[in-house]
Amino acid sequence: MNARFINWIWHIRGSLALAPQQSSEEAFGRLAPLFRQPGTSHDRMHDTLTFRKKDQAAQDKMSIFDGGVLRIEKGVAGPVLHYHLTSRALLFCFLAPLLFLGFAQATLAIGKLEKPAIEAAGRKSPEKKAAALPQNPIDKALGAPAPEKPEKDGAGKSEEDRKKPSPTSAYVFAAIFAALYVAGRILEDKLVRTLFRKSLRGS
Amino acid sequence: MDGIRVGKRLIGTQAPVIVGWENIPRVEGGPLKQFIFTWFQPTVLFALIAFWYYAPHSIAKASTAIGIGIGFKLLLLALEWVNPRYESWRLTWKELVTDLFYVGLGYTLLNMIEKYIGSDAVIEAVQHSFNWDKLAWFTGLPLLLQAFLISFIFDFGQYWMHRAMHNWYPLWLPHSVHHYITQLNINKGAVGNPVELFLIGLGIGGFFDFLPRALLLAGAIGLAVGTYQHINVRFNTPRWWRFVFNTTEHHSLHHSQDFEATRSNYSGTYIFIDRMFGTCIDGEAELLGMEGGRRMSIREQMTYPFTEGWKTIKARFDKGQFDQPVPAE
Question: Do A147 and B94 touch (CB under 8 A)?
Fold first, then answer.
């Protein structure tokens, strides 16, 4: 119906009640330092402030946002600050699991393509010498375990196992980004609210 | 800014840097905190060496090494939280997500590619075409010597690759992206253009025949030393450690906004390689990055080497075509 049903993914909206006697002039004055950051440009028209950020510094307290609108409206109980901020970082984090699931699928597809080749190679590889590996007397005296015959000298099976591409890490990262998205969507919402509240109070 | 003379070079004329160990801030807090953040690095290094030296074969496997690596990084993340070196390097959600994106690429996409065209493939090809049994003497050396040699040879190769990246434009292009990071955190080592991550992965340490345990030991040394290159934790690094090993202090200087300072401390594990070749500067910097600390987006980090390379080629080509010929004298 409208974009609002999806765009909560990367849009953060909220409102904060100002102190009853606080004018919009004073409120924006207190918020101004937040927009005096490298890579940030902002315009003020009456009761509305629009900002854009490009290549914002990691140290910028609002670095997660790329743009937004802050508006002060008269409410029943006094002036209210409404904010609507957009974050590409949130959107990309939301989409990142898809990318990693894609990598997992690609890994599986490559594994399938390669299977016949590996099997053939595995059958061909001759048994190598099974001679025991040397151990330096110093290591023996210090009590290190005697070296084991490395697995790769054994049957072709372990070699096959070693070479078989595994999609596990891609699945793990998909899960990590899904969890990070949920955490970030909640955390950043709270952080920016606290930041605005503290700035408006001037503390 | 006046800068500080180090040998023939003037360091810190463009951005503030600290030179000399005596000027570097120390851990603040009670005796327990001082103790922990003085002895943490050597304790972990020796504990890991002892573990890999004595662990039975059933435990001494690559999967254990991966597990330890992940656990160690989680521990360091906690230390970053407790005792940051600089408040301005504090890890934020966005920085964490960005860094983990690169770590994820390393574990998935780059891993896949490495298998076909990277060092894995090269080593296999070389090992197949020569009779490497001639190098079997290597496996008879003491375990710790093997481990040191593996990590030293690898780091020596990395040193020259890294130094070349800072001195030859085609190699600088893919590496430059990594220098746009503006703070150090434990996963920042993974941030960079994939082309560079591929280049830096090319090592020569893998050519020798060695005991699998020696490789695990070498990996543990790399983990317990190299990880501190990118980390936001204040340590009172012991004197002997910073003489031998690369540290956050050295590497922050390498990442500083001062051009001259970035042309130092190229090694990954053994800073004495830099001392040998006269590129070591002992110091520290807080303000990091390029272009006055402009943070690059992931998209730009992916395309920058190619777009910049294209711009340079085009500029050269245009100049060649449209420049007025210089009259002969």
Answer: no
Local confidence band at B267 (pLDDT 50, 70, 90 cut-offs): very high
Output DSSP code: residue A74: E
Please report the ipTM that was assigned to this predicted complex. 0.85
Q: Which of B89, B90, B93 to mutate to test the interface with A (most CBs of A within 10 A)?
A: B93
The vertex-B142 CA angle with B210 and B158, nearest 5°, equals 55
* Least Cα separation, residue B103 to chain A (angstroms): 9
Q: How far apart are alpha carbons B73 and B62 in whole angstroms?
A: 17
The Cα B209–Cα B217 span in angstroms is 15
**Within 10 Å of residue B5's Cβ, how many Cβ atoms?**
11
Count other Cβ atoms within 10 Å, centred on residue A22.
Answer: 19
Count CB neighbours of B306 within 10 A.
13
Rounded Cα distance, B74 and B66, in Å: 13
Model-wide pTM > 0.80: yes
- Write down the domain spans for chain B: 8-15+26-312
Is residue A125 over pLDDT 60? no
Query: Which residue ranges form the domains of chain A, and what is each CATH number?
Result: 4-88+186-201 (3.30.160.110), 92-126+133-177 (no CATH)
- Please check the confidence at residue A135 and state whether its pLDDT lies above 90: no
Q: Which residues of A touch B (CB under 8 A)?
A: 38-39, 55-59, 63-64, 89, 92-93, 96, 100, 103-104, 106-107, 110, 133-134, 136, 138-139, 142-145, 147-148, 150, 163, 165, 169-170, 172-173, 176-177, 180, 183-184, 187-188
